[in-house]
Amino acid sequence: MIHQLTFGQCLQELLFIRGWSAAQLAKVLNIDASYVRRWVRGDRTPALHTSYINDITEAICDGLDREYRKATKAALTTLLDQSEADAPMGAATLRDRVQHHLHEAQIYTLSLDTTARKNRKPTEGQSVVSQLLEITQVTLRKPNHQPTLHTSPPTHTRELEQLPSVLTNREAILSAAITLLKHAVQNQDTVPDKQIYLTFQSERDYFDGYPELYHEWQQAIIHALRLGWCIHHLCRLNKNVERSLQLVNQILAWTNYSGSYHLYYFTKYGIDFPAQEIILIKGSGAITGYATDQFKEMDAGLYLNETNAVHVIEKYVEQMLRNTEPLIHILSQNDYFELNVTKDRKPGSHCMCMHDLSYLTVPPEIMKKYMSLSISDENERRVHWWRIEDTVKSFYRDIQRYPMRHIYPMRAIEMLVTTGEYDRNPYFRPTREDIQAHLLYLTELLHNYDQFEIALIDDHTYNLIHRTQFDIKGNHTVAIGVMPRSDARPKVELIAITEGTIVRAFQDYFDDIWERINPIYQDKQFVISWIKDKLALL
Questions:
Q1: Which molecular function GO terms apply here (predicted)?
Q2: What pTM did the predictor assign?
Q3: Measured in whole angstroms, how far is the alpha carbon of residue 387 from the centre of its chain?
Q4: Rounded to whole angstroms, how far apart are CA atoms 142 and 394?
Q5: If pLDDT is split at 50, 70 and 90, which confidence band does 272 have?
Q6: Does domain 7-117 have CATH number 2.40.50?
Q7: Residues 6+ apart with CB under 8 A from 128
Q8: How do beta strands 166-167 and 300-304 pair?
Q9: Which of 50, 147, 363, 401 can pair with 441 through a Cys bridge, CB separation 3.0 to 4.6 Å?
Q10: Distances in Å between the alpha carbon of 326 and those of 89, 234, 264, 494, 497?
């Protein structure tokens, strides 16, 4: 049989069925996630003499005999049946069939030239990662990849009164939702609560396939947030990486406005059932969407504007909220400092994407000097110093055992050298000797600890990080700082996430940023040399 799938495409399908990211498979195989990503993209194919095919097979098949994995096992069996249509394997075990499937793809791919091996299909979540990486360039954007594009006029002139009560397709549902939201915001004086409730229970995003409508919806949502509206987003979580990255997208796009964004997840979900969604403007109107033709996405809906009907939906949403937990936690500055201490007490890897050098890279004596100048109250200073000592102790414990990867913009270090100021800390003016000691200490960390790496962002790729900085500890916590949206609102929104699915999505997000950085700027010897060149300017 001539295998029509490359190894990358074959592996991509298997990962999708298991609901895994490349990083999750890499963790099971005890290899770097970049290897798995190169396999999926077609940049690399395992050699025939290696044990990778056997190892991947063991990982994919592990646990499929358990009762709660029945759906995954059935999906995998269907995939294998389709691939073996010309040459069924009869009574072979599932494990043998998976291994054969991978081996055939491996042989077929190794027979191709380098160009033909490339996986032309977008990897799972790849389009969403691209969207995430670009979201910092503009607040509103259109998704890059859509399975089917539906061209709709971006402006909807229909008045609310003209909306039909029965919405016969997804485009009609989305158009009605935009009309309802715009009308409510334009007439917000008649909507006392300014509350919006959204659910995300479908396997796919509402607007998947409708980029123009998505763009208009995002504009309407951001406009509402700027005017002080409150959005409550209730979502179902699963192992679909793309869905998780969609939620990361919303967190980055909808936080730190005059209004507020609250994201919740269902703690109990019971058995799977056809998708059902709710878009509710409290006191104004509601749209309910249902999956009638397809199981995983809504394709028909109802528009409700009669007072009693809207009240019924409001009561139903209240019941739904009782079965949720907050997915994001907005923190005060003091709580954020305390979070840094508690998260770092748990051993694990540490990935940071920051706009300025982390305090973990500052020599203790300089940190003490800064605190004595910036905190006048002795008791408060003592508490802060205790927190820093605790975190630094955890840092040195982990740096010897776990990967530590930091991403910093070159401009932050250049600004420190040329102006004598930290980009994000205008209150401390270090001396020339302080700056020298700090940068020398940073090079010593890189030299002395193999697990510690720094990637430098130049001005051409600064857009990857310029809106948000975040800190991922192990597989359990993400601390996020969303930068101010405007000079009128200079506050940095501090957020914590501890739910494992979204923490892993942020890890995938970090890994994709890392891989987009020029490899030279990730090379440890280059980074040390570059920092020493800056030291020579002092």
A1: DNA binding
A2: 0.69
A3: 28
A4: 41
A5: low
A6: no
A7: 143, 242, 245, 246, 249
A8: antiparallel
A9: 363
A10: 48, 9, 4, 15, 9
User: Residue 520 pLDDT > 50, yes or no?
Assistant: yes
**The predicted structure's pLDDT at residue 141:** 37
In the chain, ranges of CATH 3.30.870.10 domains: 153-327, 330-535
Long-range contacts of 332-341 (CB under 8 A, 24+ apart): 332/494, 333/494, 335/494, 336/479, 336/494, 336/496, 337/384, 337/387, 338/387, 339/477, 339/479, 339/496, 340/387, 340/391, 340/471, 340/479, 341/387, 341/390, 341/391
Q: Which two tokens stand for residue 137?
A: 């360039």
Cβ(286)–Cβ(310) under 8 Å? yes
- Indicate the fold that domain 153-327 takes in CATH: Endonuclease; Chain A (3.30.870)
pLDDT, tens digit, for every residue of 305-364?
Answer: 999 999 999 999 999 999 999 999 999 988 988 998 899 999 999 999 999 999 999 999
Tens of pLDDT, residue by residue over 399-431, are: 999 999 999 999 999 999 999 999 877 777 899
Task: Quick: pLDDT tens for 56-75.
Answer: 999 999 988 887 788 788 88
